[in-house]
Backbone:
């Protein structure tokens, strides 16, 4: 009987220790960000009363349809995220838990992260302008492009900026719109040569795109697997690797022809 009592005490102590460990784990901050669908913006229109794309030096077209860049929104870099938050996100289609370093790769303080995101956005805008003007065959000395978009940082809007600049200046090359009157959304970085790169968070961005009326979503080809996994109903997925490829896909859509598929 004494041995049994001793064993019971040991088991009780072990159970108490385990419970304490689970409690600490449940309430300890994790290096995780909770992300969800963010805002979208039509680069062919205005954002908070200011035109997103302003072009001077050459005639500008009146466009129809929409080219919507998409974003995700995340818990602040200094916010405390706990196991229970990750657990809840696991069961919500509209949320995801991602390593904080993948959402805020620059690290540092909030101000440092905001500064890095702004620098990435500015570089992305410069590359988007270079790629677009190169496609049209215009020199930066002939035309001046200004891109303004509040509350958006990082490089993931590059592809949509390039498409918007082209649509504003040249359209489809024959006086028509790139969109064919559709609401087209997309994501992807772009460099000055027109190469499209991956961005992350695609399933949530697709949700934002469909929520705001898009029927077509341009996605970096390298992210096809993620994009297909949770594709919203009514949203056509079009993979791209270059600006020229994106323009070719949009041309096929306008003509009612098959487009690339993931």
Residues:
């Amino acid at each position: 009987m004494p041995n049994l009592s001793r064993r019971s005490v040991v088991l009780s102590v072990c159970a108490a220790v385990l419970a304490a460990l689970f409690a600490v784990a449940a309430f300890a901050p994790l290096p995780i960000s909770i992300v969800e669908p963010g805002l979208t913006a039509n680069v062919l229109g205005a954002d908070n009363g200011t035109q997103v794309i302003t072009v001077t030096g050459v005639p500008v077209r009146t466009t129809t349809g929409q080219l919507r860049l998409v974003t995700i929104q995340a818990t602040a870099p200094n916010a405390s995220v706990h196991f229970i938050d990750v657990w809840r996100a696991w069961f919500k289609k509209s949320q995801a838990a991602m390593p904080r370093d993948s959402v805020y790769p620059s690290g540092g303080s909030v101000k440092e992260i905001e500064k890095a995101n702004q620098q990435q956005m500015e570089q992305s805008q410069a590359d988007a302008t270079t790629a677009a003007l190169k496609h049209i065959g215009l020199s930066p000395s002939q035309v001046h492009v200004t891109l303004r978009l509040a509350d958006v940082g990082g490089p993931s809007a590059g592809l949509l900026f390039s498409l918007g600049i082209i649509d504003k200046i040249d359209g489809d090359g024959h006086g028509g719109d790139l969109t064919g009157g559709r609401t087209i959304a997309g994501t992807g970085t772009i460099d000055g040569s027109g190469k499209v790169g991956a961005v992350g968070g695609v399933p949530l961005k697709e949700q934002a795109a469909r929520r705001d009326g898009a029927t077509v979503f341009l996605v970096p080809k390298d992210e096809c697997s993620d994009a297909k996994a949770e594709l919203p109903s009514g949203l056509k997925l079009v993979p791209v690797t270059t600006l020229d490829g994106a323009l070719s896909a949009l041309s096929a859509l306008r003509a009612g022809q098959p487009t690339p598929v993931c």
Q: What stands out?
A: Residues 110-136 form the longest helix (27 residues). Confidence is low (pLDDT under 50) at residues 16-24.
